């Protein structure tokens, strides 16, 4: 994972590494590095390089959000790819984790379509 970059005194932009994944095995490293930060200040996690996330990655994001809330800070996700944003929406986390206009990448075609009810 890349170095933590402090943008202001109150927020931190943390960028994931170039693997393109936030999956089991990487979740513990994310927790180890970001947990202390969310206890001290607002954190915005840049997922611009992440195209794949699994249950372990989602659990890490939920844990970081909870730690931030307990400490009186905010935790958000920014620059999520369309695929990651879609997965967060499927599990209902988009409303609490994604900041407005957070999705910067998009697929050219829809991944799935549902008929209207």
User: How many DSSP helices?
Assistant: 4
Count of discrete structural domains = 1
Distance between the termini: 43 Å
Query: How would you write the strand order of the largest sheet?
Result: 1-2-4-6
Q: What fraction strand?
A: 15-25%
**Mind telling me the C-alpha Rg?**
14 Å
Q: Describe it for me?
A:
- The chain has 117 residues and is an alpha/beta fold.
- The strands form two sheets. The chain has a four-stranded mixed beta sheet with strand order 1-2-4-6.
- The longest helix is centred in the middle third of the chain and has 16 residues, at 55-70.
- It is globular and about 30 Å long.
- The protein has helices at 27-40, 55-70, 82-90, 94-97, and strands at residues 5-6, 11-15, 21-22, 42-46, 52-53, 75-78.
- It has one domain (5-97): STAS domain (Transcription Regulator spoIIAA, 2-Layer Sandwich).
- It starts with a strand and ends in a 20-residue tail after the last helix.
- It is 37% helix and 17% strand.
Please tag this protein with its features:
globular, two-stranded parallel sheet, alpha/beta, 4 helices, 117 residues, 4-stranded mixed beta sheet, single chain, Transcription Regulator spoIIAA
Secondary structure elements and pairings:
Blueprint: E1 5-6, E2 11-15, E3 21-22, H1 27-40, E4 42-46, E5 52-53, H2 55-70, E6 75-78, H3 82-90, H4 94-97
Parallel strand pairs: 2-4, 3-5, 4-6
Antiparallel strand pairs: 1-2
């Amino acid at each position: 994972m890349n170095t933590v970059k402090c943008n202001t005194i109150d927020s931190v932009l943390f960028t994931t590494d170039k693997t393109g994944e936030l999956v089991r095995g990487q979740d513990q490293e994310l927790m180890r590095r970001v947990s202390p930060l969310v206890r001290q200040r607002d954190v915005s996690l840049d997922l611009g390089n992440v195209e794949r996330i699994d249950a372990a990655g989602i659990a890490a994001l939920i844990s970081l959000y909870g730690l931030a809330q307990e400490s009186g800070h905010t935790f958000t996700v920014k620059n999520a790819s369309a695929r990651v944003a879609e997965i967060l929406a499927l599990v209902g986390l988009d409303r609490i984790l994604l900041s407005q206009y957070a999705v910067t990448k998009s697929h050219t075609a829809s991944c799935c379509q549902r008929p209207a009810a």
